[in-house]
Amino acid sequence: xxxxxxxxxxxxxxxxxxxxxxxxxxxxxxxxxxxxxxxxxxxxxxxxxxxxxxxxxxxxxxxxxxxxxxxxxxxxxxxxxxxxxxxxxxxxxxxxxxxxxxxxxxxxxxxxxxxxxxxxxxxxxxxxxxxxxxxxxxxxxxxxxxxxxxxxxxxxxxxxxxxxxxxxxxxxxxxxxxxxxxxxxxxxxxxxxxxxxxxxxxxxxxxxxxxxxxxxxxxxxxxxxxxxxxxxxxxxxxxxxxxxxxxxxxxxxxxxxx
Length: 258
Ligand code: PEP
Fold this sequence. Notes:
Elements: E1 5-9, H1 16-30, E2 37-41, H2 47-54, E3 60-63, H3 80-85, E4 90-93, H4 96-102, H5 106-118, E5 122-127, H6 131-135, H7 139-150, E6 163-166, H8 180-198, H9 200-205, E7 207-211, H10 216-223, E8 230-233, H11 240-255
Parallel strand pairs: 1-2, 1-8, 2-3, 3-4, 4-5, 5-6, 6-7, 7-8
Helix pairs in contact: 1-2, 1-11, 5-7, 7-8, 10-11
Bound molecules: phosphoenolpyruvate.
């Protein structure tokens, strides 16, 4: 059985002291959550602090973005090798907030994904439709373009490290999550596309997360779905109690997977 993966995206929140306190609580609780994989994704400023706080635990570290070049005169940017050196195993790529506010495109997602893989990071590639696209019946078309172009040129072996996060834009930070049926439809669609391109082995091993207003109360029903392998959690990851509870519910849901 695949272990659920729960990744907490702290976005642009938490001072060093707050980050250390939260990461320490998650690290302590992780001892009783050995059936799940936990990842903390703080702002760049807190990577070192969080790395220290989770040392010796099974909790992993991730970055919120990267630039596709490995090094150079790119003021303000952080590369994949620098993230690796800072202790990261994961990096979020193409989050809808970056697509919306910072001009991220499927082409830049593709370059960043390749940079992450080159450095030995697992990219968490975010895809998802806007409310307008959903209401126009264009959800699958949008997601198909994002995975086709975002993952263009990747080989079969790369797929062992790629994590896909389906995050409907209308569900992020809104308190309105996709229903388990809505999420499962898109997850199944993504898994089938992976199967078509890379085969059955890659599709069944692929980790596909759901993101969008995940909370302790909705995690169990989402994680019971066949193709939902975990969650990318924003707001509810900023409090240790709710993130840990989400992990517990995910483990329960996974065990009763349909
Ligand atoms: C996210 O940041 O990816 C996210 C899903 O946020 P929230 O859980 O707050 O909706």
